[in-house]
Every structure is written in structure tokens, then in C-alpha cells.
Amino acid sequence: MDDGYGRDGRQDFIRGAKDIAKVVKKQAGKKVGRSVDKMADEYTKRSYKRFEEEDDDDDYPVQQSQDGDGYYRNDSRANDDEGGHSDSTEGHDEDDEIYEGEYQGIPRAESGKTVPVDGIAPQAQIRDLAQFEAERRKDQEELAQQYETILQECGHGKFQWTLYFVLGLALMADGVEIFVVGFVLPSAEKDMCLSEESKGMLGLIVYLGMMVGAFLWGGLADRIGRRQTLLISLSINSVFAFFSSFVQGYSSFLLCRLLSGVGIGGSIPIVFSYYSEFLAQEKRGEHLSWLCMFWMIGGIYASAMAWAIIPHYGWSFQMGSAYQFHSWRVFVLVCAFPSVAAISALTTMPESPRFFLENGKHDEAWMILKQVHDTNMRAKGYPERVFSVTTIKTVKQMDELVDMGEGTAWHQRWRMKLADLFNQVWSNFLAIFSPEYRRTTLMMMAVWFSMSFSYYGLTVWFPDMIKYLQKQEYSSRTKVFIKEKVEHVTFNFTLENQVPLSLFLHQFMNLKMKSMVFEDSLFEECYFEDITSSNTFFKNCTFIATLFYNTDLFKYRLINSKLVNSTFLHNKEGCMLSDFSDENSAYMIYFVSFLGTLAVLPGNIVSALLMDKIGRLRMLAGSSVISCVSCFFLSFGNSESAMIALLCLFGGISIASWNALDVLTVELYPSDKRCTAFGFLNALCKLAAVLGISIFTSFVGITKAVPILFASGALAAGSFLAFKLPETRGQVLQ
């Protein structure tokens, strides 16, 4: 019994000695780790409760990995080789592994949260604002480096390609919106009796709406999230695009297109910012350029749908004389489909994890990044690979809570919340003009303005010049009849492109008149019945004993003419069309737009393949210079075919500049200001587009020299300023 007791005592003594040795070794390892990891982030430390009392609540630091990140799960077991177990592995053997399907809990990060220390309230720890901003900036820099490392681990695969097609639909909806009004104008002017001023306003209202939308949604996306803001903006676009296909009046149609433009205005700034935050630096330039192709696909979709739908006038119905639904309204309805599809697809995608981290939401960001990692690894055939990141740096947040009291009415609460949100958005906007970003912002404003002024001005000027050349060629075939007397003849066919100077004594029945100008003619005892006309006028004519029955030959078509014993009965209700257009000219508009949009395909491919090889600045400046040189060839465009060829050339070259500018804008601003800056610059782009379109189109038929000089000068200035911007290739996303 003594021997048994002695053996037990020796075993207890040996076991106690081993435990003491383990504790000493742990303490020595901890001291060495502290000296090595002195500058490691305090928020990555992990506590081990086994020696909590003995160590006086000291923590064991996470060992740094070889790349210096110190955020990976496998490294946390480096000091457990001698048998020590943390509470996270309680109940497991030393050789146990963590498998992908096993619940491990969400790692918690304390960074970015205000915590009481030694019983002191957080309000007592308020620091100087400058110091707070410095700490916040340091957090953002550390987050940028770690986030890039995490994206490298997640890889590029199925998740990014799925998001690519989802966001591509939103970008496609933006491309469609640009073309809708231009395609429906020739038909809508007949239904709505549009004057030239009304048509011009309808063409510009979309750009004005997109200008407001870009600024509004860009600012909100940095405060309430990329995904949520994009869903709201696309929903507004879809709803009012749907309504615009049914409203009858010009004012209501104009309002719907304005609000539809406001909705789609958020597409470009949010889509590029959203997608860039899932891309590692070596993939960012290339894949953002590939994303630009969906804008081209949107233009092709709009052109094809217009070609297939609008000329089919049988696709219509009418409810009395008050409500008409013609084929062009079907086209407007179909053009809302990409936006609706984007909304449906976007509901399946997560928010940007970078946005969550910038706003102190660690757990949500970690779960999304794990989803990205697991999706890509399973698609690549490595389902056993575990997402090894445990904690991620988050940015310190300023307490912005406002005590509204329990008795505050709901409308006052909403008003205060909206006022607070507006102040946050406005302060974020002012931040891009702070000394740190002022020079970059001013330079980018100049480049965006010059690019948009020349591009949109020329792309609208080209079709107008083609129409002008068509009119010139049409007018050259005009037939003039001088002093011919026609009597006892009934006209019941189409009269087109003629200028009669004659004496008429006959009947006009079931007749269409197209581009007819009667000058110094005498109509005696004539009978006009069921006449439909376009661009038809009577100048210095005399009507004696003439009857107008069921015609649209209103008195304002009679210029300096005399009516003697003449009567108008049952005049047609309709519009006087100042210009003539038929199916052939409509098909020409769709065909030219289709070719011009398709021509950007080579430029998209080249820019995507070379963006990460030659850099953003070289791509932007080089493409602008070549576009500037191509402007001088416009002086040789004296025919329809020549103008179409020059349109395709200019579009194919300039698209590379736009792709580089989009990538550069994303990478020049930090995540908490990215959408705000992009939205502001895109709003400025739409303002420049309105100015360019208004100025360039005013010179159609007058001179080519002014548009050529304006466009080439703007592009030359843009390319010069582009070289003054910093290159962002190979840098982590700020």
C-alpha cells in the first residue's frame, strides 16, 4: 500500500512538474512574442482562459504569419504544440482539424467600437477631432492592405462572374435609357403634337434626370450601402419607365422620363464602385473594362428592339379618341426589362463587405467574404479549403446618435433622420474638396467635362448631320411645275416633294401630301376631302369657292393666302408635322445607332486586355489623343456613308478613354467617398453632355468647323490634364 501510495505520489509530482514546465514555457513564449509583435494590432489578440488566473488576465498574442498579416486561424495554434488548449479547441485532441462544415462561430473584432474602460463612460473619452481622423485614417490604411490580402485568398471565380452579369444588367439599363427617347421621338411627336422646342426638351430631360440621380444616389451609396441604394434607384427607374409607356399627355410623359432618368442615374457610379470592392488589384482594371461592355449591349438591345417593334404600327389599340397605345409605347415598355431583371438578380447578391468594414460592421463583412471564398473554392474543385481569416480590421466610427425622446412624433423622427442623413451626405461631398483631395477632384472634373462635352456632343451631332444630308438629297429631287393649268382632274394618290406654280380646277380626294409647297397658285371651285399632309404649305395662294372637308389643311398652313367664299368642315384632329419622316428614315436611325454602338466592341476588348499592362493614364491620354486626331477627318464627311464610318471610328477609339476614366475614378478615392465622388463627376458629365448637345446641334447645316474645333480642343485639353493625374495601377483599393 505504501508502494502504491509512493508511486501515486511520484506520478503526481511528475505530472505537477510537467505542468509547471508547460506554464514556464508558455510564459517565456509569451514574452518573446510580445517583443517580436510589439507593433501588432491590439485587436487581433486572443485570450486563453486556461491560465487566466495565473497570468493575471494576460492574453496570448496571435503569431504573425510569414506575410505579416497575423489574422489567420492556422497561426493561432503555433504555441499549442506542447499540449496547451484554448477554449476554442476545448474537447478536441491535439491532432483534431477544423472541417469546413463545422460551426466555429463568427470571429469578433473590437476595432471601431467605443468600450468603457475602468468604469469611465465613453463620453468621457472624447478625443480631439484631428486625432480621431488620424486614427481613422490609420485604420483605413491597415484595412486596405489586409482587405487586399483577403481578396487574394478568396480568389477570382464563380462569385465575381455571377456579380459581373448581375451588375451588367444594371449598366445595360443605363445604356438603354440613353437611346429610348431618341428612338421614339419620330413616332411620339405625331401622338403628342410636339413642337421643335418640345422635342428638344424631351431629348435633354433624360440627361438632366441622370445628372440629379448620379449625385443623389452616389452620395447615399456611401451612407446606406451600395446594394440597397442600387435597388432603390433601379426600382424608381423601372416604375416610371413603365408609367411613361401608358401616359398620354406630353407633360406627364416628360415627368415620367425625368424621374426614370433620376432613377437610372445611380447605376454607373454605384455599379463600378460595388464591383471594384470584390476585385483584387491584378484583376481590377481588366474586369471593370469588361463590365463596360454591358453599356454597349444596352445600346444594341435598344436599337434591335426599336427596329423590331416601332415600325409595326399594327401593334396598337385605341380607346376612343382620348387614349391611344401605339407600337412605340410597346418599345418603351420593353426597354424597362433590363432594369427589372437587374432588380431581381441583385436581390440574390450580398452587400459590399468593404462598405460594412468601413462602417464598423465586422461580422456581416466576415460572413460575406467567407461566402465569396467558399463559392469560388467549390467551383474550382477545392471544397475542403477553409477560409482562414479570423478577424478583420474595421474603421473607428464617430457616435452620431441623436436622442429624439420617447414622446417625439413619428414624422418628426423621420424628419430628423432625413436631416441627419442629408448632413452626412453633404459633409462627405465637401470632403472630396478637402486639401487632401482638392487637386485630384479638380483635375478629374476637368477631364470628365472635356470628355463628355466632346463625346456626347459629337454622337448626337452625327445623326443630326446624317438627317441634314438626307434632307439635302431629298430637296435636290424636288419637282417644280410653273404656270401649268390643270382642270377637271381628280387626284386620289400621293403628291410628294413638288412645288407647283399652277392654276388648279379639280378635286383632291383621299390624298396624302408629303413635302408639298404650293406657291402663287389659284384654286378655283376645288374640293379637298380626306386629306392627310406633312410638311405641306400654301404660299401666296388664292382659294375661290373651295370646300375643305375632313382635312388637316388648317389655316396656319396657308401663308399669305386669300380665301374667297371658301369653307372648312370637320377638320381632322392631329398635329402639324414640321418635318417628314417615313419608315426608311426610321430604319436608318436605328441602323446608324446599332452600328455606332457595335463599333465600340474592338475598343472595349483592347482596353480590357491592356488596362493592367500599360496603365490607366496611358490608356486615357492615348485614346483621347487619337480621338482628337480623328475629329479632323469629320471635314471629309460629305455623304451619309462617310458620316456613318466616321461615327463608328470615333466611337471605337473614344470608348477606351471612358473605360480608363471609370477605373481611375474608382481607384483615386477611398471607399467611404468613392460613390460620392463618382456620382458627382458623373453628374458633371451629364451637365457637359447637355451643353455639348445644345451647342453642337445648333451648327447643323451651318458649318462643320465649329463642332470640329470644339471637340478636338476639349479632347486635347483632356488628354493633357490626364497626364497630371496619379497612376493607380498596381495599388490596393484605398
From TrEMBL:
Domain of life, source organism:
Eukaryota
Biased composition of type Basic residues is found at 24-33
Q: Which GO terms describe its cellular component?
A: neuron projection; synaptic vesicle membrane
Q: Which GO terms describe its molecular function?
A: transmembrane transporter activity
Q: Where is the composition biased (Basic and acidic residues)?
A: 34-52, 70-91
Q: InterPro entries attached here? A: LD_SV2, MFS, MFS_dom, MFS_sugar_transport-like, MFS_trans_sf, Sugar_transporter_CS, SV2
Q: Which residues form the Major facilitator superfamily (MFS) profile domain?
A: 163-729
Topology with regard to the membrane? Multi-pass membrane protein
| Coiled-coil ranges (or none) | none
Key word Cytoplasm present in the record? no
Keywords, alphabetical: Cell projection, Cytoplasmic vesicle, Glycoprotein, Membrane, Neurotransmitter transport, Phosphoprotein, Synapse, Transmembrane, Transmembrane helix, Transport
- Chief subcellular location equals membrane
Question: Pfam families, from UniProt?
Answer: LD_SV2, MFS_1, Sugar_tr
Q: Where is this region: Disordered?
A: 24-96
Protein role: Plays a role in the control of regulated secretion in neural and endocrine cells, enhancing selectively low-frequency neurotransmission. Positively regulates vesicle fusion by maintaining the readily releasable pool of secretory vesicles.
User: What is known about its subunit structure?
Assistant: Interacts with SYT1/synaptotagmin-1 in a calcium-dependent manner. Binds the adapter protein complex AP-2.
> What is the protein named?
Synaptic vesicle glycoprotein 2A
